[in-house]
Amino acid sequence: MPAHMPSVLFAYSYHSDALSYSLPCTIYFDTANAPVMEAALEPSIPPSNLPSHSSAPSSDDPLLSVFRSHLEKNVPVPIAGVQTLLHVMSSSRAVTIMGIQNDLKAATSELIEYERRISGGRASISFRACVELFFRYATRKNDDVPDFETLNKLFIARGHHFVANALKSRLGIAELGHSFVQDGMMILTHGRSEVVTGVLIRAAQSNKNFTVMVTEGRPEGSGFKAAERLTEAGIPVTVILDSAAAYFMERVDIVLLGAEGVVESGGIVNKIGTCQLAMVAKLYNKPLYVAAESYKFARLYPLTQADLEDNVDNDVEKPLFPPLLTGIEGGTATGKVEEGEGRHRQERGSSGNLLGKNTIFDSGPGVAAMTTKNPSCDYTPAQYISLLFTDLGILTPAAVSDELIKLYQ
Amino acid sequence: MGDDELSTSLSEMSLTGSRSLGGIGDDRPGSALSSSPASPGFVGKGTLRPKHKQQQSGASPTRVRKSSSPKSGKGGGGKASGGVKEDRNRGRDVSSGTTTSRNTPGGSSRCESERTQGHISAGAKRQGPQSHRGARAESEDWGRHQAPSKMIHLFSHLPQYSKRSTQSKSDLHPAIETLGLLYADGSVRGSNARTAAMLLAFKEVVREYQLPPGEVLRLDLDKALKPHIQYLINCRPHSIAMGNAIKWLRGRIHSLDPEAGPAEAKESIVEAIDAYVEERITFAAKTLAEVTANKISDGDVVLVYGRSYSVELTLLRAKAQGKKFRVLVVDSRPLLEGRRLLASLSRANIPSTYLNLNAVSYVMRGVSKVLLGVAAMLSNGAVISRAGTAVVAMLARRFNIPAIFCCETYKFSDKVQLDSICWNEVGDPAELLRPAGGPGVTRQMEQAHSLQKDKPGIAASELTASLPQRLKLLNIRYDLTPMKYVSLVITEVGMIPPTSVPVLLRESSKDDVNVNFEF
């Protein structure tokens, strides 16, 4: 062992309680070995396999197995990460606070790296924010506690508290947010968000009649998935083109969006297209609400779109122009088809399936020289957001920073 | 060069901004003060005295012209003064020189009058205007005596810049007197430098303070500090950041443990001052620069205005991080602070462009970020900063370019202000007319100019004296940038939107001693 390394080795052990594939195994390593651990991780999962976490674990890494086991229980990815960290905490053999914290740090960076790979090469803001917040919250020092054992127990108790709160947050948001939906409203949403779906379903359950307009959400067509969920809940849904947002805005009453991350300015980072939607909504004076759990609050302050990290994807393998309206399996557009889509439907009849070749740009001499840019998310400044529905309450964008300061001080 | 010497003397006070305090490319005669061999002992006792003696020799007590600095005083013996034209007589005929002893106790000792006269000659160029509040307690409302015709109505409630003597009472600590002169002539400028220098001077005062028998230290020390504070305010009205520091210091003194012995109590104050300077100013600026530098990315074109210590640190830090960016230094009359920044940037090999404020709309479209310094951050999210900042921020907004404000948290104030009028500082009106090679406004001014072509500092006072009756001059130091033009505030505790200033104030006041003093 090199001289500069700490003399105490921290022990990691993962004893999974109920799961068959978790062999009890103990890895001894100190923080300096973390890179070695990362290098030993399984080869990266190709994005085409998504969602890969539902398949059987292909790796022996105990940390990731735990993570995947939590993902299988259909919890949000950030919470699965936190549950994994909680597991690290309770099974850590470290005997000092520093030891615990180092264990957690190592596990956190490993998880972030893994999450980056399964989400297609871009670390999600909410995942990072959530694990960071958990770390802050759970391992906050407490001078009153006399010994390590008690303090560790306190840490673990706090961790469980955090997870329990995080799991409850969607229900809380649905409870707070559904009163903003009123009878006869037309609600526009963009992309797929479990929180938004939760709010809308909760509103439908309280016998409100409203219709939802969903943008299709290119390129992966997340809007269709949202539309499917809502239709199942008996809510009338219309799917529109992403580019038709301005066309329909005059008929819309409120815009309700989810967020991938809520940043310090009170703005949000969300699926590409959110910003332009928000600008149009602002121009039409339509209120724009964002439903997001407080664990998505990130200590970031993007000033321009370029401030979002590894956002622009130049991967030509990823189809930039997939024909969406019919191509998606089980995703036939439901609800009334308006004239605009009718025309579109005729046109895209000639296109192939979702992941198939792009008939428009398949050939032609110009194709080779063409570049494509395919950013997956954008930043929407706070000035376009009316309110945020969070588990901390209904917040104005300015209050996000207040909450963040409280959380981090 | 005075630059280095002053920085030596200031680095003694662990003020990293000291580099800034000399005068690179600066025609302000004030920097001459620092080039005197006497100055290194910045907070030492009586450091200015030898120089004063030199100046006195051969000084004829005639009517004082603008004796702008010891250096120029030395140059033309007759111009160094035995007295000073008093402010209330400005614009009228002044009969004789020696009208300075207005607040000097009648039977002052020889030593003291020496010092006083020295100060007059050193500080006559820019003498202390009146503090807008506390000074009233001293019953010297000089602003009232200002020639009314020269006062701008909208700003008449502010302490007017006056040709008032910076002479002191006998019981002032030399460190404070020295500092007052440095404030008055602009050698120490910028909130960080001024606040740090003030606190370190107070530290000397506390150190040498002797508790009179029968007194309580925490009450008497505060009382002993008051004239010192007042003197500094007379030399130049304090900034909001300095006000915060003074408030903190007095709160700290008041919350001293009554049981502690005087030596112990003094030591704890000294330590607290060191900690404040270190944590809230020096270290804060460094951390802030680190955070801000991370916001600069390759290929950025950063526009900066004037010279702010934290902005300068940021740019140097970003360069050290290996970032490739370009800087546009926007400057404005009369201080031309940006030239110092330019010098420092070119030393660090950062590609920079220098332009004046009036050209900023032309270059703005090519800019990717605007970095601005702050004098005070108000709780309504507005920023008080060097005059001209609001123009730059508004223009940046117009071009959708983020305007980033760098502000240490000690500059946060719970005040609310909506315009640049209710609080500001009126600078020397003559600065506006100081000819930079161009013709004067009137024929008399041109004559004065041609007479004194080689001594621009001196010409300025002549120029103001020769102004036509109805011509008024306004040289304000600060302006207010409303919240909507502030994209981001970077502090040492992180990046916050301007709406969160009250939250930080609230959070930080939890652990501070809450004592409210009026100044």
From TrEMBL, chain A:
Organism taxonomic ancestry: Eukaryota, Sar, Stramenopiles, Ochrophyta, Eustigmatophyceae
Positions in coiled-coil regions: none
Chief localisation class: cytoplasm
Annotated segments matching region Disordered: 329-359
UniProt keyword annotations, A-Z: Cytoplasm, Initiation factor, Protein biosynthesis
Subunit-level organization: Component of the translation initiation factor 2B (eIF2B) complex which is a heterodecamer of two sets of five different subunits: alpha, beta, gamma, delta and epsilon. Subunits alpha, beta and delta comprise a regulatory subcomplex and subunits epsilon and gamma comprise a catalytic subcomplex. Within the complex, the hexameric regulatory complex resides at the center, with the two heterodimeric catalytic subcomplexes bound on opposite sides.
GO cellular component term, pick one: cytosol
Name of the featured protein: Translation initiation factor eIF2B subunit alpha
An MF annotation (GO) of this entry: guanyl-nucleotide exchange factor activity
Location of this chain's protein in the cell: Cytoplasm, Cytosol
Family of the protein in this entry: Belongs to the eIF-2B alpha/beta/delta subunits family.
InterPro entries per record: eIF2B_alpha/beta/delta, elF-2B_alpha_N, IF-2B-related, IF_2B-like_C, NagB/RpiA_transferase-like
UniProtKB/TrEMBL annotation, chain B:
Domain of life: Eukaryota
Residue span of region Disordered: 1-145
Transmembrane portions of the chain: none
Keywords of the record: Cytoplasm, Initiation factor, Protein biosynthesis
Biased amino acid composition, Polar residues: 95-107
Family as reported in the entry's similarity comment: Belongs to the eIF-2B alpha/beta/delta subunits family.
Binding partners and assembly: Component of the translation initiation factor 2B (eIF2B) complex which is a heterodecamer of two sets of five different subunits: alpha, beta, gamma, delta and epsilon. Subunits alpha, beta and delta comprise a regulatory subcomplex and subunits epsilon and gamma comprise a catalytic subcomplex. Within the complex, the hexameric regulatory complex resides at the center, with the two heterodimeric catalytic subcomplexes bound on opposite sides.
Protein's recorded name: Translation initiation factor eIF2B subunit delta
Organism of origin: Nannochloropsis gaditana
